[in-house]
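re: ur question from yesterday

yeah so i grabbed the chain u mentioned. its 332 aa long if i counted rite. heres the sequnce exactly as i have it in my notes:
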Amino acid sequence: MKKYFIIKEKKMKNLKPKISIIGSGNVGMRYAYALIIKGLARNLVMVDIDKKRLEGEVMDLSHGAPFISPVDITSGDYPDIENSDIVVITAGLGQKPGETRLDLVNKNFNLFKDIIPKIVEYSPDSIYLVASNPVDILSYATYIISQKPSNEIIGSGTVLDTARFRYLLSKHCNINATNVHAYILGEHGDTEFAVWSKAMIGGTVLKDYCLICNNNHACNNEEELNNIFSQVKNSAYEIIERKGETSYGIGLALTRITKAILNDENTILPVSVLIEDYLGINDVYLSLPTILNKKGVSKIMKMNLNDDEQKRFINSAETIKSLIEKVDLSRV
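ran it thru and got these structure tokens back, copy pasting raw so excuse formatting
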């Protein structure tokens, strides 16, 4: 089998940063494409059960070498992920039209029972970044199965949901999205919620910003803001209905998380992390603003939410916990 695009001396090289991707479906490939364009990795290893198609994908990516920063891209297997800085898990069955993320839990949990021990065997000290859905449950499953410290197990969480939220708010306010600071938190799914109490535009609380823009007259924007959140919450369903899958947005979101970790940025992103001692919640993965650096999770920001937001966060936790009980992690 010809693999001219794989370095023959790869076992003698230790190019850093090294990123391994488990699963080369639409999400895995969009992430890989964004990753090499950003120049974040010198060594990229891709693993997938469909080895023939993966070889074609790697050949296709590798032929862009004259246009990007140097990167060695390998179509490999689990032994090739050794000494990765980050292992990104995108493997899993996709979400079908009419199917919620939570409907996927039993299907993908069985897959994770197979792949996580292999990842631990060959790259035990890496940061593990989980993107497969339902991401909160599978991040928790990865934590339980791997028995790694929780700071080294991160889910993509509501990073993409938050990006959608900020984009739609920027259109509503006619402001560049980089000047919008607002979060979607909780579950990456049906019980997620918008943190309206902390939403800000350029350092100004959203409700005050609306007054400024309307000459101190309160605009009747409650319905429109509720519509914005509904669009955020239903975005994945809408996209899946139209094109069958979502991949570009999450590929970019994973790239942003990766950059924060590799560059030791201490950047705050709403990733899915192990919640302990917050609003009476323990031992569940959900999204909160989190400081990320080369250690993975540096600090979880336990926000001062208002009463309604606290109830919604607790509802997310109870929803995820009830599903974890149905999965029965004792089967690990």
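noticed a couple things. Residues 159-331 form a domain with the L-2-Hydroxyisocaproate Dehydrogenase; Chain A, domain 2 fold (CATH 3.90.110.10). also The longest helix spans residues 222-243.
anyway ttyl
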